[in-house]
UniProtKB/TrEMBL annotation:
It comes from the Eukaryota. Keywords: Signal. This is Uncharacterized protein. The keyword Signal applies. Residues 1-20 form the signal peptide.
Length: 243
């Protein structure tokens, strides 16, 4: 027998043993599946990244993290890593974490991961709720505070905005309505006859009269019809206010 053959056999057995241990570890992790690539160090699902990325290292406390990051542990403490505290970086990175780490980070920092779908209200931080599109093609956490909701809702697609309005009971000012279903809390959907615009408006006299002077003539007509009241603003013939 060649003198190098026993060494070769020993090396092959060692590699097979390591591969078997790794496979067993991945199989034991319920987050790893046939269509997901897993990190052996973190045992977490990794979405394929296209940006520059270094594999995260485990942290023991926040003192081991660079500035503007904090150490977050999974609930079972099976893994921890430094996560960003600023919103933009958090949104960029959170979609690559496994769910248990993401849930822990959301709870620890109180920041929503808007780049990842939610499944339950428990996936969302305090003062937010999980809202799904009618066809369940997308879901995300939506603010339950009026100011934050109205700042965000104008950026959403129409079908998701309608679902969010129904879930929260907030109107979305400066966005289009298509029927009365889009308006809540006594607001009325004023639809222009030419079909180019519709908007939820308040029909309370003080609010109506305060706002109507700035509307275009075509929208004033729609608003007057929706609210059954006249705008006292004397619009000059041929002139139009701003939207």
């Amino acid at each position: 027998m060649a003198p190098w053959l026993p060494l070769l056999l020993l090396s092959l057995l060692s590699v097979s043993s390591v591969a078997a241990e790794d496979a067993a570890a991945l199989a034991a992790d319920d987050e790893c599946s046939d269509d997901s690539s897993c990190s052996l160090s973190a045992l977490q699902v990794q979405t394929k990244r296209t940006d520059s990325f270094e594999e995260p290292e485990r942290c023991e406390n926040s003192s081991s993290c660079v500035d503007n990051r904090t150490c977050v542990f999974k609930e079972d403490r099976s893994w921890s890593q430094c996560v960003p505290l600023d919103y933009d970086t958090f949104q960029k990175e959170c979609k690559y974490w496994d769910r248990r780490l993401r849930d822990a980070a959301i709870k620890e920092i109180g920041m929503n991961c808007s780049t990842v779908q939610c499944e339950y209200d428990q996936d969302c931080p305090m003062s937010t709720v999980c809202v799904s599109k009618p066809d369940d093609s997308w879901a995300q956490c939506v603010p339950l505070t009026k100011k934050e909701f109205q700042e965000s809702c104008v950026k959403w697609e129409d079908d998701f905005r309608l679902a969010a309005i129904g879930a929260t009971g907030f109107n979305c000012p400066n966005s289009r309505c298509y029927s009365q279903d889009w308006c809540v809390r006594g607001a009325r959907c004023a639809l222009q006859t030419d079909g180019t615009w519709g908007q939820c408006i308040s029909c309370h006299d003080d609010s109506f009269q305060t706002n109507c002077y700035s509307w275009k003539a075509t929208f004033i007509s729609a608003a007057e019809k929706a609210c059954h009241r006249k705008c006292r603003y004397d619009l000059e013939p041929g002139s139009e206010g701003e939207d």
